[in-house]
Amino acid sequence: MAAAAAAELALMKPINPISKFRKGGTLRPRSSQLRVLASSQSGATAAAAPKKKKSGKTEINETLLTPRFYTTDFDEMEQLFNTEINKKLNQAEFEALLNEFKTDYNQTHFVRNPEFKEAADKMQGPLRKIFVEFLERSCTAEFSGFLLYKELGRRLKKTNPVVAEIFSLMSRDEARHAGFLNKGLSDFNLALDLGFLTKARKYTFFKPKFIFYATYLSEKIGYWRYITIYRHLKANPEFQPYPIFKYFENWCQDENRHGDFFSALLKAQPQFLNDWKAKLWSRFFCLSVYVTMYLNDCQRTAFYEGIGLDTKEFDMHVIIETNRTTARIFPAVLDVENPEFKRKLDRMVEINEKLVAIGESQDIPVVKNLKRIPLIAGLVSELVAAYLMPPVESGSVDFADFEPQIVY
Ligand SMILES: [Fe+2]
Ligand SMILES: [Fe+2]
């Protein structure tokens, strides 16, 4: 899954780094935590088998916008990919995709060199801290994709071995991405304890059709984020703080292929694309993914400015390009190129900043909650207004023109 961690549906909840709304509307501090292990072994920490070290363990808060882990209804997935039941499954197309995944274009791409450690040692001050957070969040997001795809590969083996193998090969890609990021963390003497995360984190349940919408968007937005950062740093190498970005060009083609596979899956399930409900859900997922990314990134402007980007400009570029790509398959998308859409996003950022400030204040919980009420009402009304903006009808009923392709 993409580093964007975009498919987080936390929108009807206040965006706050240290607390979250539980069902029933009570605010309680989050108890689960990500664990980061301090490591003295430079470059030696493998993602697949992170070593637990009791000494030097530090803990960081898991936030509402931290990339999530997903699970789904695997029995329903099996039915959807049963060729006896679903005659629309185009096995020839899936076999072609499988061959492409088997080619494994990036088999030898993720090879490190001494530049990594040298660059990490040079990075000091606030940029170092925010950069570590970027590596942690990206690693968690990639690992989230690995877990979901691996399980789908396992569960679909009997009903549809071709689709199952593609999922397994996609989990190979995501494990590689997560591993590469975790090795990056080792340059900063840290490592994400992925084994601990697998067991300790809560999994968000999505029905299969929602997994398709959310994961498609997550992969495509991840592609656009990576390629945009890559192109920017290629043109402005003086902002290159760490060599990992040089790998984004080929890396993002993995995300693009993953997205194309979900396009093919959606095409094979036209009931998820061709009615009014599909249009409403498509717009809902677009909105939740775009808003989550925008709020997330605006809380981390120091990172984007640190690599020479204007956060809002970068995000709008990614949103517009992702939306154009998505319009090729979703039956409706948002009119993100209408300036009013950005104005609404910016108002949400202002409200979110106030919510974060309340969370960080010294007020007692009751007072914090009272202060939050009007802000949450404001945020919800902006979201609803953005959702109700006239949409762009898109997609193609017979899909005749649609073929997965590398967007570049
Ligand atoms: Fe991916
Ligand atoms: Fe990935």
Question: What this model shows, in words?
Answer:
Mean pLDDT is 83; it is low at 2-60 and 397-408. This protein is 57% helix and 7% strand. It has 408 residues and is mainly alpha-helical. A hairpin with a 5-residue loop joins strand 1 and strand 2. Helix 5 (161-187) packs antiparallel against helix 8, helix 9 (276-298) packs antiparallel against helix 11 (311-326) and helix 12 (339-360) packs antiparallel against helix 13 (365-388). The longest helix is centred in the middle third of the chain and has 31 residues, at 125-155. The strands form 4 sheets. It has a 3-stranded antiparallel β-sheet, with helices on both faces. A two-stranded antiparallel ribbon has the order 1-2. It contains 13 helices and 9 strands. One fe (ii) ion is lined by residues 1-2, 142, 145, 173-174, 177, 254-255.
SSE blueprint and pairings:
Elements: E1 19-21, E2 27-29, E3 33-38, E4 57-61, E5 69-71, H1 74-80, H2 91-103, H3 115-122, H4 125-155, H5 161-187, E6 190-192, H6 194-200, E7 203-205, H7 208-235, H8 248-267, H9 276-298, H10 301-306, H11 311-326, E8 332-333, H12 339-360, H13 365-388, E9 392-393
Parallel strand pairs: 5-7
Antiparallel strand pairs: 1-2, 3-4, 3-6, 8-9
Helix pairs in contact: 2-5, 4-5, 5-8, 7-8, 7-9, 7-11, 9-11, 9-12, 12-13
Catalytic activity: Mg-protoporphyrin IX 13-monomethyl ester + 3 NADPH + 3 O2 + 2 H(+) = 3,8-divinyl protochlorophyllide a + 3 NADP(+) + 5 H2O
InterPro entries: AcsF (IPR008434), Ferritin-like_SF (IPR009078), Rr_diiron-bd_dom (IPR003251)
GO cellular component, one term: chloroplast thylakoid membrane
